[in-house]
């Protein structure tokens, strides 16, 4: 099949203008009538007027006596007046109807009871004193709410008290979601704990999109997974357009591959307005119209799918309900490193945010469009405009928050070498009841020390081996953090070694085999402790790195190395035992190394830092780390060195 190439990619602004200009809201949205008690969060489709006055009768606003005000005129402390029950006044409680012959209420506190039949007044009353008059709150026929008013909890009280027991609102928009892909399988089709057979993937985008639709006030209609067949996709799209759905999302198949049929299907039975939007992630988005209904070809990668939804479907759903998407709070942040970006494409960069000192710092997460965890872990999004080639760590930029701002105050930012126990630490902190988030960035041990020097993190994870002394971290701290008071706490001792496929099919024995030309290696990034260990061992063995196939192939985490080995992209890689064990791979030990947390001494006494250290020292944390395999947490949380 002929591939569809993005010949006329639109900017995000152009795409939005073109898409929304073609949508006839009055044609696709509908009105429904709901009871007042069920109207919370709904938006009125027409003005709402009161049917009754409230209150509907004159009533007492205080406990006391009802009387005619003119009977009290001239009353003073020196000239009190005695009134008789029934003849001059009647006892009344708050909320009771005011007898027709009376026009005022005097509070019981202002009275002197002479006897059961008489009271004495020492000050006059005025007409309608302490009286709630008819219509004081609401007058019949008055406007309660205009069109496109979102009903709040207290508005329901106004509706009922005004005699409006049902209200016309915009109908919740029904959104058809069509997941496509022959490789996909529904999680409902998986039995028990059995793994996926063949090259199958669990389809989850439709569940995310359905949740986003509900969050925006709509109702999702999710179709069964449609295989990569132009005919079946077309048939399902026609069915969806003929349903009561006001808009249709076709998930996946929107790119330019040979089996990306969505653009052809939309063009054959409708009109393609846009194919390709200059945004990242989300570039393959398709915007079209079929029978007067908007249809969006939504990218298959998870993050692309979500960001495409937020730019096009989310605002549409709010428009259909007569309101606007809630705005996200923004704050100014300092990037922890320079972030280049592609000129001509607006980028939505997911970042982890924490407060270090007086500044909010933002650490960029992986840019992979298919990595849903980058949104799970993100506290914010930095939007890099299409006309910028990136942002630098020397300038503040604006970030849209994905969490409440107060959560950033209790965030501990850990930057440096990747280790699985950091994830255990983050969970165990919450298990112990601390309201603290851990934000981690994997930039290697040396990168962590540099981040500490720049004051862009609270602590650095490091396992830098001094190849001359055999000591970990201290010489590097003295070199890169000169003049900074530092406390070094041990997190774990851990086993580093070669991660290899199950059964060791190539008979790898150790580092000495890396120069074999039938072995492909996957490396860690320059500046990481693992890379330093590898280079040290290669020098010991007299092996030129240029003779190691894959030496320039770099990954940023131990799990990424293990995944490369599992997938066959590499025959081996240097990493920790726990990563090999997690993916059921074999392991050849090379070194038991020391992994430390490097913390500026001046912040040691901060409560959140102490909470982290207390957690590391806890029995439960140590037990969980031990269960991972390849770790010795015997000294976890112990102060190892103080450097002034």
UniProtKB/TrEMBL annotation:
Domain of life assignment: Bacteria
Ranges where the MoaB/Mog domain occurs: 176-319
InterPro entries reported for this sequence = MoaB/Mog-like_dom_sf (IPR036425), MoaB/Mog_dom (IPR001453), MoeA-like (IPR038987), MoeA_C_domain_IV (IPR005111), MoeA_C_domain_IV_sf (IPR036688), MoeA_linker/N (IPR005110), MoeA_linker/N_sf (IPR036135), PBP_domain (IPR024370)
Signal peptide, first to last residue = none
Question: Pfam families this protein is in?
Answer: MoCF_biosynth, MoeA_C, MoeA_N, PBP_like
Provide the top EC class: transferase
Catalytic activity reported: adenylyl-molybdopterin + molybdate = Mo-molybdopterin + AMP + H(+)
Q: Which GO terms describe its molecular function?
A: metal ion binding; molybdopterin molybdotransferase activity
Q: Which Gene3D superfamilies does the UniProt record give?
A: MoaB/Mog-like domain, MoeA, C-terminal, domain IV, Molybdopterin biosynthesis moea protein, domain 2, Molybdopterin biosynthesis moea protein, domain 3
Entry's EC annotation: 2.10.1.1
Required co-factor? Mg(2+)
Q: Name one GO biological process term.
A: Mo-molybdopterin cofactor biosynthetic process
In which pathway is this protein known to take part? Answer: Cofactor biosynthesis; molybdopterin biosynthesis
- What GO cellular component term, any one, is given? cytosol
For this UniProt record, the keywords arranged alphabetically read as follows:
Magnesium, Metal-binding, Molybdenum, Molybdenum cofactor biosynthesis, Transferase
Q: Which family does it belong to?
A: Belongs to the MoeA family.
Function, in words: Catalyzes the insertion of molybdate into adenylated molybdopterin with the concomitant release of AMP.
* NCBIfam families cross-referenced by the UniProt entry: PRK14498.1 (NF011068)
Q: What is this protein called?
A: Molybdopterin molybdenumtransferase
Record the organism: uncultured Desulfobacterium sp
